Amino acid sequence: MPAGGLVGNLSASGEGAALRTLDLDAKGGGAWRFRSQEGIWTADVSDGQLRGSKLSLEGLQVKVAGEGGRWHGTLKVAHAEAWGKELKDLALSGSGKGGRADADFSAGLPFLEGQARGSLHMEDIGGAARAGVSQANLSLFGGQLVIKGLDAPFTPLAARQGDWRCEGISLRSEQLGAAKGAWKIDPASSGYGLQAAGNHWGGPWQAAVESAAGSAPRVSIRLKDVEAKPMADFLRATVPLPFSVAGGRADVEGDADLGESPPAIKGRLTVRDSTLQFGSADRTLRKLSGLVLIDDGKSGLALRTEGASLEGGKLPVKAEAQSGGGGLRLEFSVPRIDAAELQNAFFDFLPEYLGYGTVEGQGAVSGSLDFTGGQPVLRCDLALNGASFLSEDKSLKVAGMEGRLPLEILLGKDTHAIPGFQQRGSADFGEGARALGLPLPEGEALHIRRVRYSVFHADDLELSSSTRQGLMDLRATKGKLWDGELQGEARLSLSEAGIRYAGQILLDQASLKAFCSQSGSLAGDLSGDLDGSLTFGGEGLGLSRVRALGDLWVDPRGSEPMLIGRDFLVRIGGERIRSLTHSATLPYDQASLRCGLDGGELSFYRLVLLHEANPLKAILRQDFSYEVRIPQGNTISIWQLINHIKALEASAPETKIQGPAAGP
């Protein structure tokens, strides 16, 4: 016989109008048994099933007993479906008396990718039933929602909507405080809605959950003028933002489609005077204001700014970000602005030697913060206009920069190996000059009016530059150094720890006279047109940390006379050199030099002066005379000269010679 959607065999027993037993052995619907004896009644259902248009239960187990208006029992359901929503492993254990019932419950919520457990109560006061939850713990989409003291009117057969209030809500251990709202159920369309409102993070919030026609729920949340930091920390637990927020205020409008897996989240975050922290408090962008659009869909997290600015509105900025491969890439651009403002805004991302230097002129920047690899990288394309840079220790000055310069700065430890360059001699000098005369493929062009670093005073440099795999390539296709032609190239690795580099410079017809005049103490000591190759490498900006090797030679075809000053020789060999010649200068026909720089010390490995005139003769000095004989014609080694002078000084009545030890 049919009974409530069940078909099976029904049997009953009793006395008069009193029913004592009722048994139903339903076909495919379990065993249903009800008993009433001497005021005690029991109900026992095993493996029961009920199916209706809006509600179906499978694997139903019920054990209930009561007496004198009291009852206690348990309810278990293996699988349930209510208004299109699935529940699993539903369990209810409770007791009641009169118009009040209390129970503990637990259930799996597949449509929310979670589960729920807690305690609830229902009470009928003066014909008006109210239901509520003493405490519920819900695990939803990997997060935790705790509800305490939920209370709402409840009339199951008539009411479809009502107001509710809650003593406290906690979401992922974040206390959201008391809340109130409204609920609505539409059995005809299997839809429901829930609204909530409260105050938290120093401002009001509103939230809503809606589901229509059995569709997945959609969630919306609104926050107005709340504290930015705690709100952003809370959001970061859901949306994998690469930054945290300190200070400022914010408004939030967000929507989530829970039908997606993971849920698709879209939102609008408007911040005012907030500071973004990337990884640590030492890496920040300050006083950010404007709108950030957030989209966390199937393709990953996307961010985009509208009307955003840094430094209290001084620095407008546009940014876009897209996650991928477990990381996130943030692209940004800043229009032309004073270079000092640009440096100040990105100060925390710059190495100290760039951040503490003095900058002037104007610049624009476009670039990215890349968190997709094993090491965060800041990439910038600088457009410079009349820009200059002076290092904090005043050792490096770069003036008159016009053009574009790409930068790639590693935000962490520098692990890149920097290949060195080939040392060139006179035989392959021309080949090297032709190679350096070509700009870098797909490189950016930059003109520098003047560079000053120690005795290197270069002018009118034409550079091409590019970045690749953590290294910067620079090539000077032409320039001026000591009135001669300069070409060169370098590879640099920039990181928070400092700068590492390797490079080479080729000189063509550089003036020794100009070099000596710029070096001060050597003024007037040397002249001639210098060619040569210089390779170098090191880290930091100080000369004490540079390693270099130079091969230099004087070109006899040059226009500058080839002369060496007597005072220069005196500095090398001592006062007795003055007795070798009465002339203030000596001519030479050929000269070459190999020298090295390491640890701040300049070493001469070879110095050759060749003069085709007669060998030097002995010159009388007061009470004695001597003669210096130079072997191998007119080839003069500075180390041999020093050794000869030292030997003569040993037999002289006065010892004034102080020179460097002989080198190789």
Structure summary:
The chain is mainly β and 664 residues long.
Trace the largest sheet across and list its strands: 27-28-29-30-31
Number of helical elements: 7
Categorize the overall geometry. rod-shaped
Please give the largest β-sheet: 5 strands, mixed, barrel
Note the beta-strand portion.
Answer: over 45%
Helix content: under 10%
Rg calculated over all Cα atoms: 43 Å
What low-confidence regions span 5 or more consecutive residues with pLDDT below 50? 613-642, 644-664
Distance between the termini: 116 Å
Given the helix and strand composition, which structural class is it?
mainly beta
In total, the number of strands is 40
Mean pLDDT comes to: 78
Question: Could you outline the blueprint of secondary structure elements for this entry?
Answer:
Blueprint: E1 2-3, E2 6-15, E3 18-26, E4 30-37, E5 40-51, E6 55-67, E7 70-82, E8 85-97, E9 100-109, E10 114-125, E11 128-140, E12 143-153, E13 161-171, E14 174-186, E15 191-200, E16 203-211, E17 218-227, H1 228-236, E18 244-246, E19 249-257, E20 264-277, E21 284-297, E22 300-310, E23 315-324, E24 327-338, H2 339-345, H3 352-355, E25 358-370, E26 377-390, E27 396-410, H4 429-436, E28 444-453, E29 456-468, E30 471-481, E31 484-495, E32 498-511, H5 512-519, E33 526-527, E34 529-539, E35 546-554, E36 563-565, H6 566-573, E37 585-587, E38 590-598, E39 601-610, E40 635-637, H7 638-651
Parallel strand pairs: 27-31
Antiparallel strand pairs: 1-2, 2-3, 3-4, 4-5, 5-6, 6-7, 7-8, 8-9, 9-10, 10-11, 11-12, 12-13, 13-14, 14-15, 15-16, 16-17, 17-19, 18-20, 19-20, 20-21, 21-22, 22-23, 23-24, 24-25, 25-26, 26-27, 27-28, 28-29, 29-30, 30-31, 31-32, 32-34, 33-36, 34-35, 35-38, 36-37, 38-39, 39-40
